[in-house]
Amino acid sequence: MNIQVILGQLLVGLINGSFYAMMSLGLAIIFGLLGIANIAQGAFYMMGAFFSWMLLRWFDIGYFPALILVPLVVGIIGMVIEKLVLRRIYRLDHMYGLLLTFGILMFIQGLFVWLFATAGRPYPVPAELRGGFDLGFMFLPKYRAWVVAASLAFCLATWLIIEKTPLGRTLRAATENPALTRAFGVNVPALMTFGFGIGVAPAGAAGLLAAPIYSVSPLMGGDLVIVVFAVVVVGGMGSVLGSIVTSLSLGLLEGLARVVYPQGANMVIFVIMIAVLLVRPAGLFGREQ
Amino acid sequence: MAEPAALEIDDLHGFYGESHVLHGLSLAVAKGEAVAIIGRNGAGKTTAMRAIMGLLERRSGSIKVKGRETISSPPEMIARLGVGFVPEERGIYSSLDVTENLLLPPKFADGGASLDEIYRLFPNLSERRKSQGTRLSGGEQQMLAIARVLRTGANIFLLDEPTEGLAPVIIEQICDVIDGMKKKGHTVILVEQNFHVASRLADRHYVMEHGRIVDVITCNELAAKHDRIKSLLGI
């Protein structure tokens, strides 16, 4: 078997895993804090890509400023949606959250299809990240290396915020016992709004990272979110570190499957999800209730 | 103008879903006073504490903290009036270590204990500061639950069964801490099954039955009302 083909597919797997990590990280935060399985995460990813495209096309604001602006705008939109819509269903069964966020995904996706149609729009690789490195055994495009590095840095930063800062400490406490945390004087409803913003911002950033690789299309998020959900189930709903580790591992496994058995590559994550659900329903890193 | 009571409850009704649990509870606690709420299991003592903290789903009547009506206030607003709550189940966070548990409640006023002071007061916690909160022994968890609210600058303390299930030596240590709160002029409202502890710490005892106060016994009346207390508490 050609080593270049294997390494090439592993690189693709690592890139996909990086996107899964950024998406599932947010899903884990949101599920842990709000108890909502946020299917709309796909819409925030798509909006991230579209906002990057709009910034460049309409305002001539390039890739690097967009790295700050896009997660910020997507996070703010998320907070507005949490405050106006999601807040009303916290007391209900998880199924309501799933259905409501599915509706939000469909609505936002439909809105963008109506405004921009389904055809993909190109987003150029920034000049600084064009070209690549010749590693001898393979050619590594600079932008793809950047995507992996940037998403890992983003995930690491988010993990550090949650594990090592006073804000993260309060988020973890509110996740574990929201009523008691309120009795200590913490404004948990405001924290939930903020937490939802923190949870969707990485999806927006992932949308920007993805824009130069895939074309920017209203349907790009809906396709990805199904796979990301399977990844989160394998890792364990609500486990931040579990989501990151599982995302990268499953991305690599998917890449490897493309070499070994290409016909089955698209279903390998789902096969693993079924196996994990049968053996360990709480996921590999999740806590049994 | 006279200083408002630290806590004044009038005709408080509380509900868990459809269950009517508190039936017109009324009591008043002056600043710097220590009172105990005593009564049999199921009398509504813990529910009363949760109602004061705004943690009960539905409540009506009046609860004034330092003269401010809080019947419609969310728990975080009540805590910020200077109320420190130690729940019956201790409420130690498993996802936080000892120091993180201590640092969780925000400081609302000056006068709270520093982390160093807390560790001097509870040497056991100091030795286990990096341990996960729920890995501590029952006594250590209770110390942590009390220590956690000492940092915030609170001056009204609601302590729900602080000595439940603890060894006598730990009970003694916790009583000393509550004594210390009283000496600093803080207000203490204590729910306590252990009547010996309650009688040692409280200036007055409110006896609860079926969700309402049925008697108030001061320290001076303890001996005279011994038989009545025994019948009310079933001891």
Q: What portion of residues of chain B is helical? A: 25-40%
What is the tally of helical segments of chain B?
A: 9
Give the termini separation of chain A.
45 Å
Q: Please, what is the CATH homologous superfamily of the domain at 33-43 and 82-233 in chain B?
A: P-loop containing nucleotide triphosphate hydrolases
Number of strand segments of chain B: 10
Integer-rounded radius of gyration of chain A: 19 Å
Extract low-pLDDT stretches of chain A.
Answer: none
- In the predicted model, the low-confidence regions of chain B spanning at least 5 consecutive residues are none
Specify the structural class of chain A.
mainly alpha
Order of helices and strands of chain B: EEEHEEHEHHHHEHEHEEH
CATH architecture of the domain at 33-43 and 82-233 in chain B: 3-Layer(aba) Sandwich
Shape category of chain A? globular
Oligomer: heterodimer
The CATH first-level class of the domain at 33-43 and 82-233 in chain B comes to Alpha Beta
Strand order of the largest sheet of chain B: 6-7-8-3-9-10
Mean pLDDT score of chain B, rounded?
90
Mean pLDDT reading of chain A: 90
Number of domains of chain A: 1
Shape field of chain B: globular
Largest sheet: number of strands, sense, barrel closure of chain B:
6 strands, mixed
> What would CATH call the class of chain A?
Mainly Alpha
Structure characteristics:
heterodimer, A: 289 residues, mainly alpha, ABC transporter involved in vitamin B12 uptake, BtuC, two-stranded antiparallel sheet, 72% helix, globular, B: 235 residues, alpha/beta, Rossmann fold, six-stranded mixed sheet, four-stranded antiparallel sheet, 9 helices, 10 strands, 27% strand
